[in-house]
Specification:
The structure is a single chain. The chain is α+β, with helices and mostly antiparallel strands. Helices cover 59% and strands 13% of the residues. It has helices at residues 2-13, 19-44, 49-71, 75-95, 105-119, 122-143, 146-151, 158-220, 230-240, 288-295, 309-315, 351-393, 400-414, 451-460, and strands at residues 245-254, 257-267, 281-282, 300-303, 322-330, 333-342, 419-424, 433-439, 474-478. The strands form two sheets. A six-stranded antiparallel β-sheet has the order 3-2-1-6-5-4. A three-stranded antiparallel β-sheet has the order 8-7-9, covered by helices on one side. The longest helix is centred in the middle third of the chain and has 63 residues, at 158-220. The radius of gyration is 44 Å and the shape is rod-shaped. The protein starts with a helix and ends with a strand.
């Protein structure tokens, strides 16, 4: 039974074959089965040799047509051969051995008309129908002539006549029914495909809308800090694929090992963030296979139970049922990856979905790098403005003490320090004493240094340098509150 189902799936219900081929296969398969049954009946029950040969010819023709239709893709040729050979030659030829005027051939002529409707179109169909009806009329007329009436016009026994009639309307009815049922199933299948295509188009439109929205947020929004738009962008991406959590991870070298460190996260309101670490995870300690997999631009996609044992051991404590992990490359370098957690449903995302999300992830990674570069640039500009302002103030006519105090104030405020000290150190021994000091508040005012503070200063800033006897002035910042 399973083999028969596989046969039907391969030749009738598959989408790999054209519609014309599948329809013809349904007709050929039905015709072959009933021609075989009729051949057995007329061979052993009625012992009608002539009719058996005609039916054998029909079965052989159907088998040849089935072979040509599937293995040589001669669809139109097979349809024409079906109409000409079966409808215009073999069926009329069976009219006389079956009893002429007393034969059950009207049912088979009806089947011929069904075949003409199935395999022809337009004006050709009308012409073939007229020719076939005319041929049937000629058969009935010839059967009334004395010679043919004497040879084939004798009525068969009442018992065989009943059997012939029953076989005829059963075979033709079942054949037409099979064709109708196939057409119904085909229409249902096409309707499902149409609905699926419509849903796919809607989903594809949703994905495109998501990518457009993310690109608009991250590329076209005028903001000095692109990271401000990450939360709505990540929320849109996660909602688009029904994910519960989304994380952006960037690669960092820590102690000589490649780590992935969480940079940004989005978590659905009904969920809790499960990742608290700020130091990241080493690839070789957590999931060693990911480093090589991601370096090849491969993704992790599917239910947790379908992943490797190492992946399941690391991810199962976070309540994940399905996960999608997409590596991100910037300038052909493995920058990091983006992960989507589905904690309520098992799912495998389509290739189209992965590609759309990959584009959006690339936009986020570029925005993150742009934000960091802008932060560095702004910091450098502020440093240059600070130093230029300090340098310019020293050419004014104010006292040196006032200028130094003003410079310390500017540096302290720039670095958000609580106090700035300028200390001198002795040649070899003695405490480090402040020469100039600035404090943001009175409570941070400098007092006599303790030995521990001296040790800290002397160890952090060595007194001697190559070619020098001492360092007369030192600079450091001190933050005293969290």
């Amino acid at each position: 039974m399973k083999k028969f189902e596989k046969f039907l799936q391969k030749y009738i219900y598959t989408d790999d074959l054209p519609l014309e081929t599948r329809l013809a296969n349904a007709v050929y398969l039905t015709g072959f089965v009933y021609s075989f049954v009729l051949m057995l009946f007329y061979s052993f029950v009625e012992n009608n040799g002539a009719l058996t040969l005609v039916i054998l010819g029909i079965g052989a023709s159907v088998a040849v047509l089935f072979f040509l239709n599937n293995y040589f893709s001669l669809h139109r040729l097979c349809q024409w051969v079906t109409i000409i050979v079966l409808c215009f030659i073999l069926f009329p030829a069976a009219f006389f051995p079956l009893g002429g005027l007393y034969s059950p051939m009207p049912a088979y002529f009806v089947l011929s008309i069904v075949f003409i409707f199935l395999f022809s179109y337009g004006k050709i169909r009308v012409l073939l129908l007229l020719l076939h009806i005319a041929e049937a009329v000629v058969c009935y007329y010839v059967a009334t002539l004395p010679f043919f009436s004497a040879s084939f016009g004798k009525p068969v026994s009442q018992y065989n006549h009943y059997l012939d009639a029953i076989l005829a309307f059963t075979a033709v009815g079942l054949c037409i029914g099979c064709i109708v049922e196939y057409q119904r199933r085909l229409n249902e299948h096409e309707r499902q495909k149409l609905n699926s295509s419509g849903n796919n188009l809607l989903y594809r439109g949703k994905l495109l809308q998501m990518v457009n929205y993310v690109s608009e947020l991250l590329l076209y929004t005028e903001s000095e800090n692109p990271e401000e738009n990450f939360e709505p962008a990540m929320k849109t991406m996660a909602h688009c694929i029904d994910a519960d959590r989304m994380y952006i991870w960037q690669n960092h070298i820590i102690n000589g090992k490649l780590h992935y460190v969480q940079e940004f996260e989005w978590v659905k309101q009904s969920m809790e963030s499960t990742l608290k670490t700020k130091t990241g995870y080493a690839y070789h300690n957590s999931i060693p296979a990911w480093e090589e997999k991601f370096s090849k631009r491969e993704v992790v996609n599917g239910p947790l139970r379908s992943l490797s044992v190492d992946e399941q051991q690391v991810l199962s404590p976070f309540g994940i049922k399905s996960i999608l992990v997409i590596p991100v490359f910037l300038q052909e370098q493995f920058w990091g990856f983006v992960s989507f957690d589905n904690c309520h449903n098992e799912q495998v995302y389509s290739e189209e979905t992965v590609n759309m999300l990959r584009s959006a992830c690339l936009l986020i990674a570029n925005a993150a790098m742009r934000g960091k570069n802008m932060h560095i640039l702004h910091s450098q500009l502020r440093q240059q403005e600070l130093m230029a302002g300090i340098a310019q103030s020293f050419i004014s006519g104010e006292s040196v003490m006032t200028l130094i105090q003003e410079a310390l104030r500017r540096m302290g405020e720039f670095m958000k320090a609580h106090r700035v000290l300028v200390l001198t150190a002795g040649k070899k021994e003695g405490p480090a004493l402040p020469v100039y000091a600035w404090v943001s508040q009175e409570q941070w005012k400098f007092r006599e240094p303790s030995p521990d503070f001296k040790t800290l200063v002397d160890s952090a800033f060595p007194q001697r340098m190559s070619g020098r006897e001492k360092i007369p002035i030192r600079f450091c910042t001190d933050i005293l509150t969290d």
